[in-house]
Specification:
It contains three helices and eight strands. By secondary structure, the protein is α/β, with parallel strands linked by helices. The strands form two sheets. Strands 3-2-4-5-6-7 form a six-stranded mixed β-sheet. A two-stranded parallel sheet has the order 1-8. The mean pLDDT is 95.
Length: 148
């Protein structure tokens, strides 16, 4: 996964803002032969009915809204992110059971006592039996240069 540091910071801040509940959102960008290139985030409300400190749900309407927002920017949905309050940034058995998109990137941020920590990326194996670690490549921030 390629991503700018500012987007990773936004994921961390989202996790801190929703602590002790899990945050969630979608990754927008482009898929290519070298992996997913994340160019924007689409944060959504955790719609899980209970145990939101251990579970998250993205409503179908939120997913559709994210797809529309991505299309408007010339992008695609390329993955999801969520937080693990007071747990490691590793996929849980529930994460694996609910994952359905092998081509997507799954980002998890650990939030311990309200402070974001480790952030990891994963992809679902083609046979959907496990998550495999995915490298996070930080892209340089673009700066505009005054050419006058």
């Amino acid at each position: 996964m390629k991503i700018k540091a500012t987007l990773l910071d936004q994921i961390r801040k989202h996790g801190e803002a929703t602590y002790p509940e899990e945050c969630c959102g979608l990754l927008l960008g482009k898929s290519g032969p070298d992996g997913n290139h994340v160019l924007a985030l689409y944060p959504v409300e955790n719609r899980h009915a209970e145990q939101r400190e251990r579970r998250y749900t993205i409503a179908p309407s939120d997913y559709l809204a994210a797809e529309r927002a991505a299309r408007q920017q010339g992008l695609d949905v390329v993955g999801f992110y969520h937080s693990h309050p007071d747990h490691p940034a590793r996929p849980s058995a529930t994460d694996l059971a609910e994952a359905t998109f092998p081509g997507y990137t799954y980002v998890i941020v650990a939030v311990h006592q309200g402070r974001a920590g480790e952030l990891t990326a994963w992809h679902l194996s083609p046979d959907r039996t496990r998550f495999e670690p995915e490298a996070i490549e930080i892209e340089p921030e673009t700066t505009s240069v005054d050419q006058t």
